[in-house]
Design brief:
Strand order of the largest sheet: 1-6-7-5
Order of helices and strands: HEHEEHEEEEEHHHHEE
Shape: elongated
Largest sheet: 4 strands, antiparallel
Number of strands: 10
Number of helices: 7
DNA sequence: ATACCGACCTGTCAGC
DNA sequence: TGCTGACAGGTCGGTA
């Protein structure tokens, strides 16, 4: 579901609402699919920490948690608990340092949502984690398809790839040098550029006038420079509009984004190109729908 | 290395 | 109304 602009919108919403709050207890559901760390480890890491910051790394949401001994919950309503001995052993290295931080990383997959709500709010189907906050509110992770991922890390989290909005043109252009893969596949490769997904790849390629199937190695430097600008322009515009809402995607405040109104090719198969009136074509490229104008894109 | 495919899951919607 | 199949914003692992 969410690509970079949606995740950025969600992160800003969350940061505004819960930075500075403390996680007092954590409940985790019985479905293990979204968990990339042990449930017990997630509970143990989150409980008692203060949310120092929330940032985005590609499509990942990273919670920076300050470990605060005095606020450590004396008990929790978590379903999963570790034996006392192991719990103490595992905590020792983190608590021994003066400024201990942990990182909670959330990837929303296709249908994941993070919502902040009052505890009496109805618990949605497919709720996999509930973090109770010292302010009295709850942070909940909901994900019907369970493609989302939750993990905790003691060290700084680095998903690889470059941030398209931070990288310079030279570095961006060089990422594609000599690659025979279709340019769209390269754009979707999170180890190269992080944060670009199916919608924004199609929209960026349209603005740059490049067909999704073009081999990256056959694209001129000038065209790649154009693509660099297109990717950044599309992402910035989408962030400014709060992301693309298709079906049920909403940000942390429950507000919809509006970038879907700006889509020029995505989801417009058969409709006229806004530039030249040629019908937009849809093809399947490595299993993903790809939309382009056969006249404007070469 | 790279490309293609199915798998992972549930929900929705169009068509019959 | 209800069934079936296609499709969905993301990744991962296997295979050729």
């Amino acid at each position: 579901m969410p690509e970079l602009p949606e995740v950025e919108t969600i992160v800003r919403g969350l940061a505004r609402r819960i930075v500075g709050d403390t996680i007092t207890s954590v409940w985790i559901g019985s479905r293990p699919q979204p968990l990339r760390s042990l449930a017990s480890e997630i509970v143990r890491t989150l409980e008692g920490t203060r949310i120092q910051g929330i940032r985005r790394a590609g499509k990942h949401i990273v919670f920076e948690l300050a470990i605060n001994n005095t606020a450590k919950a004396t008990h929790s309503n978590a379903k999963v608990k570790l034996p006392r001995k192991r719990k103490q052993d595992a905590l020792a290295p983190l608590e021994s340092s003066a400024n201990a931080f942990a990182h909670w990383v959330v990837h929303l997959g296709m249908t994941g949502r993070l919502v902040v709500c009052e505890p009496e709010a109805e618990i949605a189907k497919h709720t996999h984690l509930i973090a109770t906050l010292a302010s009295g509110r709850e942070l909940r992770f909901i994900d019907p398809r369970m493609f989302g991922k939750l993990s905790v890390h003691a060290a700084a989290f680095d998903p690889g790839g470059v941030e398209p909005l931070d990288v310079d043109e030279e570095t961006f252009v060089n990422l594609f040098h000599g690659r025979k893969t279709p340019i769209k596949s390269a754009l979707l490769n999170q180890k190269l550029v992080r944060g670009v997904g199916n919608i924004y790849a199609d929209e960026s390629l349209f603005r740059a006038g490049i067909r999704p199937r073009r081999r990256a190695s056959t694209i001129t430097r000038a065209q790649l420079a154009k693509l660099y600008e297109s990717v950044r322009e599309v992402l910035r515009e989408a962030i400014a509009l709060g992301g693309s809402s298709i079906s049920d995607y909403v940000d942390a405040d429950g507000e919809e984004g509006f970038f879907q109104l700006q889509h020029r090719v995505y989801g417009r198969e058969g409709e006229k190109c806004l530039v030249c009136k040629t019908p937009i074509r849809r093809v399947v490229l490595s299993g993903r729908s790809s939309h382009y104008c056969p006249n404007c894109q070469k």
